């Protein structure tokens, strides 16, 4: 099955150029000339494997679109933009982008980065499906229980004080990784490698996802502690 790429750019010439490049590489491509239209396509059920996204678009910028997508999905998002300043890249990574490529771009580098992100996302998906913690009898542990918190691995469900909390796929994977290794301090580099996999990307992605998890989970008690100068550690109390 072909990998499916959603291409979002308000420049028709860029769209046509990228369509030719990507389709010649064997990808299925859906194109959109606005953030609003792209968001509508996703809400209507479009399921791309990767999103290639411009920033400077009228009405809804690429930053806004990326932020909205990240509330529901952890699909690889690559910014492709003429905005090449460091601050532009930092903003992109902090709102959840996986990569940032400046225009004009080198075709071979763009394709290499796309392949790297697709491989990594598929590897993470398979690992999540296949990997499960075992109890002493050899049976899979499908529910991780802590004081005020339950993580149901089979259904990707999380409950805080018996109330279901909506997490994105990557937020769930990050929480599960930390909870399964409770008490162990991990650097941002280690977390990125274990949850996102090796390849292109920014460590700010880890910081953003930790922040989002804390906002959603830590109402009455702390679960993820910052170990200043080192990284993060899960400190939930097992029950």
Automatic annotation (TrEMBL):
DNA-binding region: 141-236
One term of GO molecular function: phosphorelay response regulator activity
Compartmental location: Cytoplasm
Pfam family, one: Trans_reg_C
One GO biological process term: regulation of DNA-templated transcription
Stretches assigned to the Response regulatory domain: 4-118
Positions where 4-aspartylphosphate occurs in the chain: 54
UniProt-recorded name of the protein: Two-component response regulator
GO terms under cellular component: cytosol; protein-DNA complex
Domain annotation OmpR/PhoB-type: ranges: 141-236
UniProtKB keywords: DNA-binding, Phosphoprotein, Transcription, Transcription regulation, Two-component regulatory system
Primary location recorded for the protein, binned into one broad class: cytoplasm
Phosphoprotein listed as a keyword: yes
């Amino acid at each position: 099955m072909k990998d499916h790429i959603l291409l979002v750019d308000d420049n028709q010439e860029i769209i046509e150029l990228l369509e030719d490049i990507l389709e010649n590489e064997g990808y299925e491509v859906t194109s959109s000339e606005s953030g609003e239209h792209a968001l509508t396509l996703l809400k209507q059920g479009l399921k791309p494997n990767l999103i290639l996204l411009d920033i400077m678009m009228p009405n809804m910028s690429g930053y806004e679109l990326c932020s909205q997508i990240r509330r529901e999905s952890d699909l690889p998002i690559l910014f492709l933009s003429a905005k090449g300043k460091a601050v532009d890249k930092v903003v992109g990574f902090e709102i959840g982008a996986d990569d940032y490529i400046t225009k004009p771009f080198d075709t071979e580098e763009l394709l290499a980065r796309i392949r790297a992100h697709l491989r990594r996302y598929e590897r993470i998906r398979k690992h999540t499906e296949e990997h499960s913690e075992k109890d002493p009898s050899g049976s899979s542990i499908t529910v991780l229980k802590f004081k005020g918190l339950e993580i149901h691995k089979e259904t990707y469900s999380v409950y805080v004080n018996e109330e279901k909390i909506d997490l994105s796929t990557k937020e769930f994977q990050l929480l599960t990784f930390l909870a399964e290794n409770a008490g162990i301090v991990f650097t941002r580099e280690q977390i990125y490698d274990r949850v996102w996999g090796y390849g292109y990307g920014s460590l700010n992605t880890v910081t953003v996802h930790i922040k989002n998890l804390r906002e959603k989970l830590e109402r009455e008690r702390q679960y993820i502690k910052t170990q200043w100068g080192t990284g993060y550690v899960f400190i939930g109390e097992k029950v």
